[in-house]
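Quick one, tokens below:
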């Protein structure tokens, strides 16, 4: 961190270090001081990092554990977070956007975090088990909510079924957030090595990707009755929550609007969510993108779906340009822009195909005289692991509409 600059309310600090209890403490302390952490994947390449941070102008960038410790030493003790972390979400143009809550008044900040605590029932005796990287919004939100209620957080490190199983046996967690890929890998491990006692859990929430039906049923069978939930949301905001028992009665639903919110569907199927003032956001430094996302007190992230007479939401599909692989959002346009600069690539189209383990697998169709080994090496140098295509197909031309838009559906 630049010693010449004292952090002030409204400043931004980019965090590119692995998740840990110290990381969580730094995020909490920063928000208490009204300073906004920008949590990012520490595996980002230099070019990805520069592209993402270019428009966000962080006051400081933390890339080592030593720097993180130094940062924490300058910050006040954890208290009420005066906003949300500034997570980044890619757009259809491939240009990452910072989701900016702005500095909240103490009353609005209290309302924001109390709302989250009321929905999930965070309590002083909670022990939250972190499975996903803390630079993602959902696991960080669950961990902070637990700490604010006086509970404890366990961070066993990069996801590993054996380590998670050991943590369950040792720490007896009461809550965890996961994505379907986590559940699939845990169930496979438990089938081979034996399952731990899961009676300690009161809340297991999953989101981030569609959950296979057989995984959903296994989840309900293995964990305590009434403990399992699904929710639908995005980096920008949270929309619905659904007990698994509700899903069982209405297969395919992602639930009804969370308390304090209202869901509506436009004639074209676009889903809109009305939120309280304290949950509003802007895209940092991008007023035109902010304006396009809002209609009065309601916003959209471009997802489509329908809402039944009882208010239950059903998704007709995520944004057509979005691939969700292992619960990680991958935007084809961003990957195409990077790989399109690889020598020998004339054209490239990136798309997702169903994958039994990851939900979707990132694939690429390439036009041009470039060896697959060169593409693999280029992707490794310039893209974080979730964004690297796992399958490469070489074609003479890309299928397009009459207006020139690539037909990714045909490639898939």
């Amino acid at each position: 961190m630049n010693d010449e600059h004292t952090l002030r309310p409204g400043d931004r600090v980019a965090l590119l270090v692995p998740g840990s209890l110290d990381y969580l403490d730094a995020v909490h302390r920063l928000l208490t001081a009204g300073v906004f952490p920008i949590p990012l994947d520490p595996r980002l390449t230099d070019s990805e990092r520069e592209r993402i941070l270019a428009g966000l102008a962080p006051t400081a960038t933390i890339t080592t554990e030593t720097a993180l410790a130094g940062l924490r030493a300058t910050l006040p003790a954890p208290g009420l977070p005066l906003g949300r972390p500034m997570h980044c979400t890619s757009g259809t143009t491939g240009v990452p956007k910072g989701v900016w809550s702005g500095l909240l008044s103490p009353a609005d900040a209290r309302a924001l975090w109390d709302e989250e605590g009321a929905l999930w029932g965070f309590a002083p005796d909670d022990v939250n088990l972190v499975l996903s990287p803390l630079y993602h919004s959902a696991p960080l939100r669950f961990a902070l909510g637990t700490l604010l209620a006086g509970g404890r957080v366990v961070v066993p490190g990069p996801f590993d079924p054996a380590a998670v199983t050991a943590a369950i046996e040792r720490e007896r967690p009461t809550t965890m957030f996961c994505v379907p890929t986590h559940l699939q890998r845990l169930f496979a491990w438990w089938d081979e090595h034996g399952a731990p006692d899961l009676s300690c859990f009161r809340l297991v929430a999953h989101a981030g990707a569609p959950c296979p039906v057989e995984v959903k049923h296994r989840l309900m069978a293995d964990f305590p009755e009434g403990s399992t939930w699904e929710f639908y949301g995005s980096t920008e905001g949270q929309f619905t929550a659904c007990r698994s028992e509700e899903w069982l009665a209405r297969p395919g639903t992602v639930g009804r609007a969370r308390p304090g919110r209202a869901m509506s569907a436009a004639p074209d199927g676009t889903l809109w969510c009305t939120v309280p003032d304290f949950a509003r956001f802007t895209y940092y430094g991008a007023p035109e993108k902010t304006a396009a996302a809002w209609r009065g007190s309601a916003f959209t992230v471009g997802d489509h779906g329908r809402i039944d007479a009882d208010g239950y939401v059903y998704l007709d599909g995520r944004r057509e340009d979005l691939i969700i692989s292992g619960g990680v959002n991958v935007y084809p346009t961003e990957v195409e822009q990077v790989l399109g600069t690889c020598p020998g690539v004339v054209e490239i189209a990136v798309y997702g195909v169903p994958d039994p383990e990851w939900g979707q697998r990132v694939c690429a169709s390439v036009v041009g005289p470039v060896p697959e080994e060169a593409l693999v090496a280029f992707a490794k140098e310039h893209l974080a692991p979730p964004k690297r295509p796992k399958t490469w197909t070489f074609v003479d031309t890309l299928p397009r509409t009459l207006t020139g838009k690539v037909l990714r559906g045909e490639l898939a």
